[in-house]
Amino acid sequence: MSLIKWLDFPSLGDQRGSLVAVEMGQDKVVPFDIKRVYYIYHTEQGVSRGYHAHKNLKQVAICLAGQCRMLLDDGTTREEVWLECPTKGLLIEDLIWREIHDFSQDCILLVLASEHYDESDYIRSYEDFLKWVNR
């Protein structure tokens, strides 16, 4: 089973440009209630981010501009994918190790999260992650 799960967001618009809307309670694309939204931008060249997993949090990552490479790992399978389209979201479920690499200079990565920030939900060491998924 692939770790790569894409969500397609309808692009609305006309000759003036495009628009993607995500609405709480209306949108059936995101499979959870969104409790937190954040974005990553101006990442310096050569810098990677992530390097953690979550015990319960689910996320959708959408590259609004530019591109970046996401590595996902469930403790058995490792898969990589490029995020580079503002109408495609990558669903990242709980207990998936994630790393983000190769940010383009103009990359803006939007993340929709199922829960509010909770430091106790993070697994920040890969060794601890492997122990957690193999218990």
Helical residue percent band: under 10%
Oligomeric state: single chain
Which second-level CATH architecture applies?
Sandwich
- Sheet having the most strands: 5 strands, antiparallel
Structural class estimated from helices and strands:
mainly beta
Intertermini distance: 21 Å
CATH class: Mainly Beta
Report the C-alpha radius of gyration, rounded. 15 Å
Order of helices and strands: EEEEEEEEEEEEH
Q: Strand arrangement, largest sheet? A: 1-9-6-11-4
Q: What is the count of distinct domains? A: 1
What fold name goes in the CATH topology slot? Jelly Rolls
Rounded mean pLDDT score: 94
Classified in CATH, the superfamily is Jelly Rolls
Number of helices: 1
Question: β content, as a range?
Answer: 35-45%
Large-scale geometry: globular
Number of strands: 12
Low-confidence stretches: none
Keyword list:
RmlC-like_jellyroll; QdtA_cupin_dom; 5-stranded antiparallel beta sheet; isomerase; RmlC_Cupin_sf; isomerase activity; 43% strand; mainly beta; Jelly Rolls; 1 helix; 135 residues
Sequence-ordered SSE layout with sheet pairings:
Layout: E1 6-8, E2 12-14, E3 17-19, E4 36-41, E5 49-54, E6 59-65, E7 68-73, E8 78-83, E9 88-92, E10 97-101, E11 108-113, E12 122-123, H1 126-133
Antiparallel strand pairs: 1-9, 2-3, 4-11, 5-10, 5-12, 6-9, 6-11, 7-8, 7-10
Short précis:
The protein is built from 1 helix and 12 strands, in the order ββββββββββββα. It is mainly beta and 135 residues long.
